[in-house]
Amino acid sequence: MVNFKVKDMDISTGGPLVVYLNEKDAKILDLHTSDRIKVYKNGRVETAMIDIARSARAVPLGSIGLCEEVLKSIKAKSGDKVKAVLAGKPLSIEYIKRKLDGFSLSKAQIEQIVWDIVHHKLTDIEMTYFVAASYSRNMTIKETAYMTKAMASQGDTLKIKKHPIMDKHCVGGVAGNRTTPIIVPIAAAAGLIVPKTSSRSITSPAGTADTMEVLTNVALDIKKMEKVVLKTNACMVCGGSLNLAPADDMIIKVEKPLMIDAKSQLLASVMAKKASVSATHVLVDIPFGRGSKIESTEKAMILKKDFEQIARALKMKVKVILTDGKQPIGRGIGPALEARDLLYLLKNDERMPMDLRKKSITLAGTLLEMGRKAKPGRGGALAQSLVESGEAYKKMIEIIKAQGKKITNPSRIKLGNYTYEHKASRGGRVRHISNECVSKIARIAGAPEDKGAGIYLHHHVGDKVKKGEKLFTIYAHSEQELGFAVEACSKIDGFVVR
Amino acid sequence: MVNFKVKDMDISTGGPLVVYLNEKDAKILDLHTSDRIKVYKNGRVETAMIDIARSARAVPLGSIGLCEEVLKSIKAKSGDKVKAVLAGKPLSIEYIKRKLDGFSLSKAQIEQIVWDIVHHKLTDIEMTYFVAASYSRNMTIKETAYMTKAMASQGDTLKIKKHPIMDKHCVGGVAGNRTTPIIVPIAAAAGLIVPKTSSRSITSPAGTADTMEVLTNVALDIKKMEKVVLKTNACMVCGGSLNLAPADDMIIKVEKPLMIDAKSQLLASVMAKKASVSATHVLVDIPFGRGSKIESTEKAMILKKDFEQIARALKMKVKVILTDGKQPIGRGIGPALEARDLLYLLKNDERMPMDLRKKSITLAGTLLEMGRKAKPGRGGALAQSLVESGEAYKKMIEIIKAQGKKITNPSRIKLGNYTYEHKASRGGRVRHISNECVSKIARIAGAPEDKGAGIYLHHHVGDKVKKGEKLFTIYAHSEQELGFAVEACSKIDGFVVR
Question: What SS3 state is found at B194?
């Protein structure tokens, strides 16, 4: 145990816990870069990574430089006296090595790893070893279930004392396809509890959270979320504003560079979000086919089985539906355009996109059957009647108001003022629309950051078009962005007309 | 291809190639953090990782911020115009993923990975995936040989048009044990070519380079090294001052956090250094036994076989000798103390450590037999006669002078002025001396940075000592460091006397 004087380094690492030692002190104590040290102050203790300061001016002999994160953790300030002692490596290092050696990990070991990740005890390199090990050595369903539970429990959790708790998930990859804000009010109108959390878009023109944000407040904390659900049966909030399964984002960060898709991590990531809201029943939508994330039926079937297995291990009921993912669904692509479509739909306005309606009613019907609100085979009819009667729209208004109303009338939604109508360069039938291309154009136009930016599709696959007929309209918030989007679509518009 | 105005960010990353984009530019171009971008200027091109600047003040719209490394590479300065375009991921990302998936890699694929490592094209996370893959999926001997050759060829190489070229290696872990500076002059005196590169210590009280630096200049570049070898048959220089197999250090950096000992990487690391000097014959010393790096005979035998296999794949002759690693060898531990011992020995001064002499002559004899300077079984006698006749010492003086003479007379070596004699707390026979403990005390006393600091052992295992008799003397350059070392050895001195 050695005494040090604290120096506030005025460095915020954004998570990692780091202390800085004078070179000489480090040598005398036989401490090295990336060794860990325990720092004690008045009964508080924090373990941090050591970095060696190059100059005595930065950290004088006998001083210990602390980053903001460590200062806060042990409530220290410059000049304070602290004691420090060499700490062993986090326990999880040994477990990660075991996994890399091909052993299975126990519940306690996986919990320790997740704890160390969440508490910033592991470096990126150490986390990468964990992901590499889970990938190259595979995780059993048992390990994946431990991982899921550990990720969920080490974060915010919603506990509603009702049964069943419904949830849904879509693996994504299809432009438009905003079914959640239609399914949720239908199910809630039928009396089901649906505490839905969604993500913002990372690489697509809109996530459900982006779209819902056009209509209401989505940045709720867990207490406010609970209130909304108790009042309306449901909610549609942004998962990123909560602290659900925080280990997940940290793992994804190190998966990205190699585009590693460790199956076990993917499943744990999705299911942990469901476990965080105590979901008992989960409907999973897997769009597949050319131009979607999952191109072959075989891959879709394997993923279906994976979801079923992990759900069984977690004692959740899951129903997995394979849907057509070959073209965009709905007309609007971009937050405001999608929000307008779904309000048209719930209001039974004739401008609603029929493909989105059909898919949403099918999915909602399945959810109603899972939650025993309809007999097998009768869910779709019930869902349709809830939409047609206006019950679903009424429920939507309730939810929007409970979360902090902005807009419930589609005509009040603002779209980008700069528009461009993209026309068919030849006549024929629309044979294919590329999800990737239209998404890219919508993003270049400004979506999702510019809520009113995006694309409105005038045609779907199968439609007959004449040369010069509008294929889609681009919306943007500035002339420059519109210009970039037009340039992009003049090169490749994603439509095959023949 | 987009035009940008260069901004010198005044950031030196120490290797990684990074450019900074304005947030808005990044969005319009659909570029993300850690995407790669190619930057062109006047026919020069560099690929760099993208980072997004948070404020427009840091990087204005239409500007691209370059770190020093990129500025230098494309010879750009603030205000210059450059063109940029999204670059694919480095080819090696795909190969690393293949290895992680369990496939073997081809020669070309391994060369690409090493090239990307050496040229800072991979992040720490990406390199970690490579190490994890090599570890969990294993590398074949073939792959290890490709790796070795790629690491060697993508760095400085020494090409001496003579045959054979001799080298030696010790896996380390034994305090003292400075055989290299004795073996090399013996072999060179017999006419063998020995272009020896050694490392500085990282965790021990001295590396061969630290010890040789007491006597001469060890920081030679490859041309100067060649001159010395052509003149004297040999050299003993610091590998760190050359650019031998630079990929190796970068790989070791990501291995350290998990204490990963990917066998293939270890072998490739050692053999690449030998291949860099075009060695044809390599003598490997594996000290083993309690308290050394390799504790069991089984592990030593496995490592021996590994070296023999990789050498065969590299078409090098290798001879592996298992030696006793249970206690320190020689008396001095620390650069100056070791240097003094080895000059005593080469000068046939009666103060020489006999255990070090015996081991060195055995190893040198083997090297002489490998290089056909002695018939099988006669190398030891020749080595001994070269020492006794003063030929080896004469050769040592030649080498010291050629590299930039400092000291050839042991009495001129300066030791630390602050000393402490550590005495036996009871009488009996010395049963064990811990390599780890005495090394630690020597390091705390200041070795290897303080050349004159360290420990001088008065006894070895098997000696009878009386209570109060000197066990070892600690040397330090300051009272404070001596104090720390005394404190450490008062707790645990590493000696078992019974």
Answer: strand
